[in-house]
């Protein structure tokens, strides 16, 4: 296959390093998160340009609720603002917006905005933009098992059956996972769905991750040989 043809269908990014980016500049952590929003926009635009079908972003983990209250509130406010600011971009580019995670912990205002944006972009299919918010991989598996058992009393769980109950049902597993900031771990992200995902780690901090860096990750992916257990 030509290198240009080997575009992953689903790219997922663990957007890490905002705090360190701000610290390097003698600024508050929130300054880094806010600059990180610009990287999100750049990556969304690039994904559209490259014909990537699914771009998913880890924005806030279940464990991140344990951060100082001011930072959590700042991040939630940023999320709300981002949805409101970017909705025209979704219409312009045919982007379907989705959020996955434990909605129970979000404010009513944010939840309403998310649900509204999900429903008004539902018919778009050029790019699926999926934000993981208040999400953890273990939470996802547990909620899937619980729902499976409730709806299939007495039945044994098999992996195909369980898949339908994962929060990501209907979304193909990620082909490529990118993590910025030099950390090389999953931090309780999509544990189930990354069984055969290619991993790409870079030292670049998230606010500095723009088109050029994204292209680098795609080039690295194009060179990988995926075997899925076969020879
Ligand atoms: C990633 O940046 C954003 C979130 C986890 C919300 P961090 O805030 O984790 O930045 P570092 O890792 O402390 O530099
Ligand atoms: C992972 O980053 C979560 C997100 C990027 C949303 P963290 O910064 O929370 O991960 P750890 O704590 O370094 O593992
Ligand atoms: Mg971090």
Task: Provide the CATH superfamily.
Answer: Decaprenyl diphosphate synthase-like
User: So what's the overall shape?
Assistant: globular
Give the number of helices: 7
Bound molecule types: 3-methylbut-3-enyl trihydrogen diphosphate, magnesium ion
The CATH top-level class label: Alpha Beta
N-to-C SSE string, H for helix and E for strand:
EHHEHEHEHHEEH
Q: Give the neighbour order of strands across the main sheet.
A: 3-4-2-1-5-6
Structural class: alpha/beta
Total number of β-strand segments?
6
Description:
The structure is a single chain. The protein has 231 residues and is of the alpha/beta class. The protein has a single domain (3-137, 168-222), classed as Decaprenyl diphosphate synthase-like (Undecaprenyl pyrophosphate synthetase, 3-Layer(aba) Sandwich), CATH 3.40.1180.10. 43% of the residues lie in helices and 16% in strands. The protein contains 7 helices and 6 strands, in the order E-H-H-E-H-E-H-E-H-H-E-E-H. It is globular and about 55 Å long. Bound molecules: 3-methylbut-3-enyl trihydrogen diphosphate (IPE) (2 copies) and magnesium ion.
